[in-house]
Amino acid sequence: MNPFLSKLNIYCGNLKAKTLKDLSIITGSPIGITKSERTKDILNQCLDLEQLRQRKLQQGYIIINSIDTGISNFSFTKFKWNINDKLPILLSWEKIQLQQKFLTNLPNNHHKKFDKLSSNMSPKEFSLLTHNLVNYLLLLSSSQSSQRSYTIPDVFTIERQRTRTISSKFVLDPIINCNILENLLFSSLENRLRNLKDVDSIKPYLVLSSNPQRMTSFWCPNMKTMNNNNNNNNNNNNNNNNNNNNNNTEDHEPLSEKKEKRVKLNDNKLSKTFKINLVKDILRTRCLSQQHSNDQFIELDSHWGDHLNHVITKNPTKFKLYDCLINDDEEMNNLGQNGTKKDDDLADSFLHGLSWIEWLRSYEGIYKLLNEGKEGEDRDSNSGYINETLLNDFIEYCHERKLFVDKIQERVINLP
């Protein structure tokens, strides 16, 4: 364990369970049941965040490519965060019908129609599709050479796929295909680095799994909070009422299995809607606000800024994320033909990328805080001594960042 993580481990050992939970949320860590589990998960997550911090420090920037896999609904969002900038800049935001884009050159596919998702893709098709997709993501095609020097990612985050739908006890073919694609893509990206022939042609990058539950819990309130807000929508004391309602809810008898499944299904649908609305709000705030504010999460270059301004100003409240894409006409036509004009996968890839940006921001704040104590503190901490002032500052920082998350969730609840 490196010296900083050793120090972090010591300070985590002196935090209460509630503060450890806050620290888990702001760094994107799993929330374990016991304090020791939470500390272990936080340190494991911080191993990845430390690599991102070092890469950003060494290069002066970091590029994160966040991926939501799917055969017909593959989407990815690429952000670049410069070391001296508060906000990341949006580089790419794409949605691809993978079969149309990467399998149409197979001899057997000259006359194959992709009117709907194929449920019987062969191993050869999966292999070729993944190979071409990896080349595309690494900007290795000749048409992408002009972008290669400044937009090749430092980290790929790939959303973990579920094993079945909440409403069904069966594993559906599209879910099987998504799981196959997720694992093939992850291994192909990692194996590309292991191939010595490719070392000189691409810079090293990280490949990380991104947990959809942790991403969703960072941006969206839970079901109880959303229901309580709906019940008290016109009450000026929403916060107090929500706390009371949450306490009362915990006294209710457990839900039946059937009702619990229905609640989970509704929760899933609600979170999709809220995430879509949140991304719309982030884009709308960025495009329509005259000044920078704490409500903004991204920067836009002139290319994206002009395009999104055009889309959003036409209909600020009802525009679709799909309409925000800058795909070429052929790809947009392929997406439309295959019924993929939906927004939830675009919102997921967008928010996965921003999640890692915000988790890294939290980690950088913690790193700076714990390394800027009084003279001699490093020696004392390594020997097991806790600086009480620094510990209190650490606790306060965790609570402040958690309040930031709470404000995001409150913003989501209050969206029209």
TrEMBL record:
GO molecular function annotations of the record: crossed form four-way junction DNA binding; DNA endonuclease activity; flap-structured DNA binding; Y-form DNA binding
Biased composition (Basic and acidic residues): 249-264
Segments for region (Disordered): 220-264
Upper classification of the organism: Eukaryota, Fungi, Dikarya, Ascomycota, Saccharomycotina
CDD domains registered for this protein in UniProt: CCE1 (cd16963)
GO CC field: mitochondrial inner membrane
Organism in which the protein naturally occurs: Naumovozyma dairenensis (strain ATCC 10597 / BCRC 20456 / CBS 421 / NBRC 0211 / NRRL Y-12639) (Saccharomyces dairenensis)
Residue span, Mitochondrial resolvase Ydc2 catalytic domain: 64-365
InterPro entries, per database record: Mrs1/Cce1, RNaseH-like_sf, RNaseH_sf, Ydc2_cat
Name by which UniProt lists this protein: Mitochondrial resolvase Ydc2 catalytic domain-containing protein
Annotated Low complexity bias: 227-248
